[in-house]
Amino acid sequence: MKLLELYLDKIRQNLPQRNREDILKEIRSTLMDMIEDRNPSPGAAADDETVKEVLREFGSPRKVAIQFGAHNYLIGPSCSQPTSRYCGSFCSSWAHSM
User: Fold this and answer.
1) Per the structure, how many domains does the chain have?
2) Which residues contact 59 (CB under 8 A, 6 or more apart)?
3) Domain containing 55: what range?
4) For 42-92, what is each residue's pLDDT tens digit?
């Protein structure tokens, strides 16, 4: 199940801090149920191919995180704040000069 843990870690990196662990528990539970349902040998550990199939079907970690509340910014807020301050100052100066 190392693949599952790697997948969940990638999702974790893209989730907002708030409710992160609750969301991951929900995703883990859903994935484990899917893996168990498809396991050709009930009661035994699932093989890597079964896990890969389920993870592919579930979607990329980034897309899953976005579905659960992660933001999909082209330019993140931390990058845009200095720009908006500059634009605000420029627009204010420009308006006063008219």
Assistant:
1) 1
2) 67
3) 2-97
4) 888 999 999 999 999 999 999 999 998 776 555 555 554 454 454 555 455
Q: Kindly report the three-state secondary structure assignment for every residue of the chain.
A: CHHHHHHHHHHHHHCCCCCHHHHHHHHHHHHHHHHHHHCCCCCCCCCHHHHHHHHHHHCCHHHHHHHCCCCCCCCCHHHHHHHHHHHHHHHHHHHHHC
pTM of the model: 0.69
Angle at 37 between CA 27 and CA 56, to 5 degrees: 55
Amino acid at the residue 85: R
In angstroms, the CA 15 to CA 11 distance is 6
Give the whole-angstrom CA distance, residue 19 versus residue 45: 29
Structure tokens, 82 = 């200095």
